[in-house]
């Protein structure tokens, strides 16, 4: 017999109830009627703020939200439930339609709390919960509007950011003495405030809103605060907390919690066995959960109960990790140290913008909770440790580089600790999948346990667990090749194979992927494969190499012309300026002595490069795993301390190695004396002038793990120097792994730097002549990639926005102004932590 | 909810305009952007062009290949793989992109949209 379930409310949790029930109810024993107040199917409210980023409601669509092909689900939009008659087991909607139910799930969510200050309902006052709310806010924001957000919690800050992106001059008013009072403590709040103010928002903490005052037009004109000050304002957004929508239940005589919410048991059932409540309208053990994760868990419980199961909702902790206005914020466990005699261990570094607090038991042995602001990388490891013995001294755990990343290994976690909090996977489950289930890499663990498939922050721990379990990480490039990059290089070199199809047919399997295709493309390029977009090679390149430009977050590209050694004439600077002006590009001096032009669309790239090439510029390969720049200092030509002509050498080197494709990017610099103004020791190969000649350093980099380059040879002349660099680079190109920079390559080498010196200085393997001639071929074969495109109509044809409408601009790209230049309209979407 | 929807086939380009194992973007009526792919076997597939993880309209510019036997395109921004047939994201099965029926008639690629 088919029974009828009525779901009141089609928000995120109501939707999950339907999905979960339809997934489990194989025999179709329930017919579902969803009665929704909003005029559109459930959407991703958590990502609501990203709506500002293009105003496309479709982007918030939840998969399957319309139940289009499901005969058993009837979705009725825009007609809310008005009344529940528990005796008759019916609900009546606003339009007067009556539905009978065997079970009723209340999933009515919550409403924004609007403090009843005078003027709170003037035109120009808004709340922040639905797509329509945001449309309303947008309609009220003129060009130079001033906005006041009442409430400095999570949602208030999101609202403030939305206003900021709309170009509104924004104030945040928070009653508590700090921002995000629920999640962070005073120290964290202070740091957060500084970061938020840096974005141009004005913050008023510890003061309440007294009144919204009407202007002459009867709309919002100003906001008066309790401290007597007045903020002129054109609009107000109230974001001062939420209240469960429990009125239906209350009117039907069901119990309501002290602070609101429909009272339910751990099966999410009210006192009436036919009525359930889930999500933000439910109150369990006196608690209402304002996060989507616990709501989803409740939805699963109800689906199970409806099919006769006995699942229970165990309660959820309110640990969260989010990115708010670009700042990482995490809080977990007893963040406010309310546990009796709890101790707080704090590391506060305002300079680097990081605040870390651990709350521990009075003997400093057990972790109780914590707050991380600015650098929340320790969250994944610390959160599962709550309530457990600390693996190290708490001071060491919050110290700068100790973080939780280095100080504590995943090995320190107990077996039942959650490693992946998105999918609630414990260390034991993962270890089991590795040792018992035979998972030999991260991908296999993902498939088998779901760990790592949410926010991804636990993936480094998965890798560590693999290593701890003694699984040797295979050197196979990917599922298509059992070989490493170095082995593939040797295969291609010795067999003469020069196409990907041949290589994968004879030495691999399948059709290739985003890992092996660009790797093989790089190998073929190093072996003199012609233009990177020739023939089949074009399909192997990732988007940067395919469009010879660097992709940016909004799908536009950046253009970086080569400026060898950082030396540039006034004429060329003017050309860059004119091109930027004519195409409306954002310009920035990069960290590597050149100029980045950002915001170009695919179809603009050839037009921009036509102008640049005509003025004598060429590709700077900022997009490639290739030589980037050779930085220089002014050297003897100008500097009173210089002992060699560093600029001339830098230019010579940059022109010699330009276009060289490598396992990773390559950077270099030349300094004119030991003062080292060009930072040569931070480069893959760096040269420092001496009275007698040049010192060559190798294996340096900045980036994630900075390393100083080490001295390979000293006081050599220019000819010897270049010979050694030729050998060094070719040896690296042939033998390094994919994405392995020179430092890690040397480190991984048996014998390290000494071995390298033996090979390329003393020629211990007898390969130096060959390495040199390979480099000579590269130098002779160099041609500017961009000129190659401009001269070839077939290649040019690919630079169009749409195959069927080449001139039409991509409507998803929009810009706003910042400091007089165009920058993309974009918004940090908060990470959802599913629990 | 069952609804009957009108569908239209829009001709977008010649089959030969598409490079094997590479994508191209096309514009459908009402401004809908699709990413078109021609796989090694000559078939064409169309997915929504907007990458759900970044919001950028770039899926057409991803690398085409296979993963565990499924034909995929990999987003050029954060590298998630999407099944060319179902639109499902292999790295996060809770996420998927719209699939549009695509066919080749007399060397002309056509895409179907609501
Ligand atoms: C534009 C620029 C920042 C700036 O405005 O100054 C920049 C921008 C990017 N860097 Fe950088 N890096 C830039 C100088 C640097 C420097 C400084 C330098 O070169 O002197 C470093 C540290 C030095 C070093 O590389 O050792 C640097 C270390 C990185 C790293 C970390 C590398 C590492 O080994 O840890 C990455 C990530 C990577 O390559 O995998 C990276 C990656 C990137 C990427 C390509 C990220 C991406 O995939 O989108 C950025 C986009 C480039 C673009 O133009 O769209 N960038 N990046 C600089 C371009 C320099 C140029 O003219 O080519
Ligand atoms: C801007 C913003 C950012 C957020 N960020 C996060 C985050 O990062 N992480 C996180 O975990 N959570 C976040 N949340 C909270 C999250 O969105 C909610 O926890 C979640 O949406 C709750 O789902 P729900 O179904 O219980 O309620 P809702 O999504 O509010 O859905 C309830 C639905 O019921 C309808 N309804 C009400 N009464 C009736 C009636 N009588 N009849 C019919 N329908 C009715 C309402 O119109 C609504 O559509 C955020 C919320 C907002 C607004
Ligand atoms: S490195 Fe030496 S020569 Fe170059 S600018 Fe600095 S002090 Fe002058
Ligand atoms: S913690 Fe594992 S994916 Fe988020």
Commentary on this structure:
The complex is a heterodimer of chains A (about 850) and B (about 110). Chain A has about 850 residues and is an alpha/beta fold. Chain A has four domains: about 5-110 and about 245-305, FAD/NAD(P)-binding domain, CATH 3.50.50.60; about 115-240, FAD/NAD(P)-binding domain (3-Layer(bba) Sandwich); about 485-540, no CATH class; about 550-780, Sulfite Reductase Hemoprotein, domain 1 (2-Layer Sandwich). In chain A, about 30% of the residues lie in helices and about 20% in strands. In chain A, α19 (about 645-655) links the parallel β32 and β33 (about 665-670). In chain A, α1 (about 10-25) runs parallel beside α6 (about 290-305), α17 (about 570-585) runs antiparallel to α18 and α20 crosses α23 (about 770-780). The longest helix of chain A is centred in the last third of the chain and has 18 residues, at about 720-735. Chain A is globular and about 95 Å long. The relative contact order of chain A is 0.07. Chain B is globular. The model of chain B has no long low-confidence stretch (mean pLDDT about 90). Chain B is about 0% helix and about 45% strand. Chain B has a four-stranded antiparallel beta sheet, with no helix packed on it. Chain B has a three-stranded antiparallel beta sheet with strand order 1-10-9, with no helix packed on it. By secondary structure, chain B is mostly beta strands. Chain B has a single domain (about 10-115), classed as Rieske Iron-sulfur Protein, CATH 2.102.10.10. Chain B has strands spanning about 10-15, 20-25, 35-40, 45-50, 65, 70-75, 80-85, 100, 100-105, 110-114. The interface between A and B is large, with 52 and 50 residues. Bound molecules: siroheme, flavin-adenine dinucleotide, iron/sulfur cluster (SF4) and FE2/S2 (inorganic) cluster (FES). Siroheme binds next to β32 of chain A. Flavin-adenine dinucleotide (FAD) binds near residues 8, 46, 80, 158 and 830 of chain A.
